[in-house]
Design brief:
The protein is of the alpha+beta class. It has a single domain (about 5-180), classed as tt1808, chain A (Alpha-Beta Complex), CATH 3.90.1570. The chain has 5 helices and 7 strands. The protein is globular.
């Protein structure tokens, strides 16, 4: 069983999303998922993504449909500069159409390309979450490439978190991202 079936908060959030849902339940689902896999007790932060200069001057506005995972603490919970690990773009289920997946992937790529980690490592994982489905990617900052996290795999379609097997795959990908972040 995956965390999507075992964790009551995640299971409830997943079940609350229906075909007519807007972005907030999807954001709630991904906040619950990421808070479980990337806990604060291990030095991670899960929060809405701040967008700089999006509108008027230097103001900071919240991007309500993007959740970001950051590290803030290293081994032994020693404070260190924040480093973005994962952006999740959350969209409503009605966007589950091929053209919208392509459009939102481009948005995610643009967002990742603006990422600048203090460490100089501008690689970041990204996820495109539409309703209860998800695709994972990796942005290679030095090469300016955004590619599927599993490019050589037979997995081409979004993972459906309501499917037990696909939910376990998604959980494995997220766990691998976590382990990659703390190496």
């Amino acid at each position: 069983m995956s965390i999507f079936e075992q964790n009551p908060a995640i299971k409830s959030a997943l079940e609350s999303i229906d075909d007519e849902s807007y972005e907030p339940p999807v954001v709630t689902l991904w906040t619950a998922i990421l808070s479980t896999i990337f806990p604060t007790s291990e030095g991670f932060l899960v929060e809405p993504h701040n967008v700089l200069g999006h509108g008027s001057g230097d103001t900071v506005e919240r991007s309500p449909d993007v959740v970001v995972v950051r590290t803030e603490y290293g081994p032994g919970l020693q404070k260190r500069p924040r480093r973005d690990i994962l952006f999740v773009e959350c969209k409503r289920p009605l966007d589950d159409r091929p053209s919208r997946w392509v459009f939102h992937e481009q948005q995610l790529k643009d967002q990742a390309s603006r990422n600048r980690n203090p460490s100089g490592d501008d690689d970041i994982f990204t996820a495109e979450a539409i309703g209860w489905k998800v695709k994972f990617f990796r942005w290679h900052g030095s090469r300016e490439e955004h590619e599927p996290l599993y490019p050589d795999s037979e997995i081409r379609e979004p993972l459906n978190l309501k499917n037990s097997y696909q939910g376990r795959l998604a959980e494995r990908f997220l766990t691998w991202m976590k382990l990659s972040a703390i190496e």
